[in-house]
Design a protein that fits this description.
alpha+beta; 26% helix; Alpha-Beta Plaits
Length: 96
Amino acid sequence: MARNQSRCVRVALTGRVQGVWYRAWTREEARDLGLDGWVRNRSDGSVEAVLSGRNGDIEAMLQLLWSGPPLARVDSVVVEEWSESVAPGFEQRPTG
């Protein structure tokens, strides 16, 4: 896929990703990259995010998600293509 082609993905993250500012950190990093989408905690202890934007920016964000904020420990990042529409901007959503 070309670097500037638009793409949308859903990401599921596991590890020590709740209670460590992971959602707020993700929101700020995604906004810095100009991505649209959202991030939320899941009731199973994971974090879920939807990222929409240029492929190169999504790839950069996926790399950042592996490290996360300082107190996080990411064990897995599972990525799947997402076809639902995404509103402009990037928001932190309540647990879903």
